[in-house]
Amino acid sequence: MLDIRPVAYVIGLLVTALGACMVLPMLVDLAEGRGEWHVFLTSGIITMLTGGLVALACSNGIGEGLTLQQTFLLTTGVWVALPLFGALPFMFGATQASFTDAFFEAMSGLTTTGSTVFAGLDELPKGLLIWRGLLQWLGGIGIIVVAMVFLPELKVGGMQIFRSEAFDTMGKILPRATQISASISSIYISLTVVCGICYIFTGMNAFDATVHAMTTVSTGGFSNYDASFGMFSGPAEYVAAIFMILAALPFVRYVQMLNGTENALLHDSQVRAFIATIAVLVAVTAITLLWIFPHHPEQAAREALFNISSIISGTGYASVDYMQWGNFLIALFFFIGLIGGCAGSTACSVKIFRYQLLFASIRVQLRRIRSPRGVFVPRYDGRPVGPDVLSSVMSFFTFFVVSLGVFAVVLGLLGHDFITAVSGAATALGNIGPGLGDRIGPAGNFAGLGDAAKWVLAFAMLVGRLEVLAVYALFTVRFWRG
Amino acid sequence: MLDIRPVAYVIGLLVTALGACMVLPMLVDLAEGRGEWHVFLTSGIITMLTGGLVALACSNGIGEGLTLQQTFLLTTGVWVALPLFGALPFMFGATQASFTDAFFEAMSGLTTTGSTVFAGLDELPKGLLIWRGLLQWLGGIGIIVVAMVFLPELKVGGMQIFRSEAFDTMGKILPRATQISASISSIYISLTVVCGICYIFTGMNAFDATVHAMTTVSTGGFSNYDASFGMFSGPAEYVAAIFMILAALPFVRYVQMLNGTENALLHDSQVRAFIATIAVLVAVTAITLLWIFPHHPEQAAREALFNISSIISGTGYASVDYMQWGNFLIALFFFIGLIGGCAGSTACSVKIFRYQLLFASIRVQLRRIRSPRGVFVPRYDGRPVGPDVLSSVMSFFTFFVVSLGVFAVVLGLLGHDFITAVSGAATALGNIGPGLGDRIGPAGNFAGLGDAAKWVLAFAMLVGRLEVLAVYALFTVRFWRG
Ligand SMILES: [K+]
Ligand SMILES: [K+]
């Protein structure tokens, strides 16, 4: 029998912690003085009480560590429980959201997707705005820890190639998982602070700088304005681009750099591939934009850098309605969203290391054409890659693509046109944020979709954020069979 | 140094044979008496002369068999050379096509894609119509032989799992590749004849029955009418559905059945998966169509069976403009096109056995969750599957999806909207035929695309038909390096 008490215990603790985080937006609302602080007081009390009681009730079940099954259940359980409670302020507060809308927004936050169902952001109480930013910020650090500590153990999506490496390297510096998390967290906090300060230098006020720093470093993409980064065109876009890229790099490399391995970042082959990809795409986009703004080369370069960084990192800030930029960039941006950032960062989607592994495997096959009897092994970052990693990556990629198809067909069933259905499924599964088309494109939002579509998309966000198979495993009979 | 003479010799012979086939449309044109027969006389003489001279010039290079490199070059070379000459009648004949249009049509024919650049088919001389059918029919039998004999040797796209099996089984009955081809060809011819007779029974005239039998059994999908199967609604749709499905089953099983293994077809796991998939999809589609034609249950069932069979087998006949059937079926049909039929048939696209292999690999991974120390091997049709097959399948799937993205972006660059770009890339790469949207959807055709888009799509057809990597291998430096 699967003992769920240790799982419920940890989830209870994390829910309690989420409730405690509601103090921050409460203080912001108190300072703003629109009388909205009680929203977070109520939500916080409900959340902390429920979480605390669950943890208390299950504390008798704590053993020494978790089984693999329990770890799977925990990973998905956390990302279902936290949005349930993270949704409360949206239901009680000025947004007066339905449960569906509130859950969608909280899931979109905690998975760092950044699709929003709210219009009129500019007018919302500051507490709700910072709560949206905080959900993404917590989701971002949460996923790095999960990707570093849990997913390699679960052997999901080929993440196991980072297991030995991360633990070997970390093993020398930091012996335990909690210490890994602590050291990653301090990097994450520092990046956020520096990003916020840079935003202030570009002229943002302290509040916007704080929220946008949180949603930049988490590659979440929530903004305080309906116009998103259209509010801040100019220097702020350069700052955003730099920090979105930094947030999409593997955080363990920063730890190594701080510990004296200065080249840690550039020695990582996924980092090199990621930067090279961005460079090529920015160049192509900038050249295309020069046709659209022929007299503004700086604007073309800036918009290219900002939008490519925003989409490839899965942040999903928009500075303009790029549906107006013509069919080439629309199609390009759609497929770039399916590339994604580096593993062990806050970025999502397929991720660049999987393409590297897939291409390494293809290269080996082409080599066999020349030497049919030769023995060749695909390599990643100079090391041989085992068949189990390759088959994990293959499974991930297959399930990602098949899920994309299934979610799109379901959205079609719910009455959405082809471009909304396909781009909606992709943006949710890839945790990107904006879709394509008039409705959910960069100029629209997700408010107009039906409730069923919102639940489908919220589920797709969860599936995408947890590397697909970590969630699907729970739906198999085999998993639950005693 | 790569000796291309043996390759050129075989291609020369095949071009000569294609030229000889032009006698058939010439006779049809003679019988019709519109004075068009000279088109095929001229084309035939040019084709046979060129092919013959090349074969003669290279006959001194024939060795004993081909190297792997030469086999790759031959496979792609055939599918580039034959369309070049197959295009001649479209340039010289009543269609007066440009070289681009003629090549597109011939490539679309020989790859059994079935996208057409010609409107006003109903008025064309019969010689050209039967030439279109004949190109698909030859392309269909050609691909079965290539898939049976060459691709398993090239280890492209996981086709090697059919190698030992096909050759083992065949080994007992028929020792050599030419005999395999002969025995498959007689099945192919018989299916075509029976299909044609059935069409005549449904009321088609002999000419239409002949051409449509050729394009049905090749899962090509060219029709003699702009309205495609809209001309023949009723019993003919049932006949078409049955033969499209039969043509998408592995032909080697028919040979085995004729040789006494009565259950050969149903024992093949890809056949069972394929039939089950069709059954589910037809049921879902029929139920959806009952909302559209509530008072015509027979029509709903028939249109569901016909259209699902047409798309999943990659035939691409249209009976109605299903762009009018609502967003669910549009999205469903798009993704069904990416399933495809069985290996060793005339069907194309990803093919059902690859999904089976990918899912088998995923199942093994899920099993490891329960028993982390257990050793599990993915199985296909009861036999263990080696990692090289899985990595071939993975490479195929990755390159298929990435190619789809790249072709779609290039079509976007050429100015096409998202739905035209994405569905155009998918329909060409999957050798299906119709795309989605107003322009290239089931009610449109490919005439209005620019020349550049036509070349891109023709290349995509080639890539898709030859299992992607067989073509891409030629673009690597490694392949050509002495
Ligand atoms: K995002
Ligand atoms: K076809």
Can you put this structure into words, describing what you see?
Chains A, B: K(+) binds at residues 112-113, 220, 315, 431. The structure is a homodimer of 482-residue chains. Chain A contains 23 helices and two strands. The first copy, chain A, is mainly alpha-helical and 482 residues long. Chain A has a domain at 385-480. In chain A, strands 1-2 form a two-stranded antiparallel sheet. In chain A, a hairpin with a 2-residue loop joins strand 1 (379-380) and strand 2 (383-384). In chain A, helix 2 packs antiparallel against helix 7, helix 6 (99-110) packs across helix 7 (126-154) and helix 9 crosses helix 10. The model of chain A is unreliable at 164-174 (pLDDT under 50). Chains A and B meet through helix 4, helix 16, helix 17, helix 18 and helix 19 of A and helix 4, helix 16, helix 17, helix 18 and helix 19 of B. The structure holds potassium ion (2 copies). One potassium ion binds next to loops of chain A.
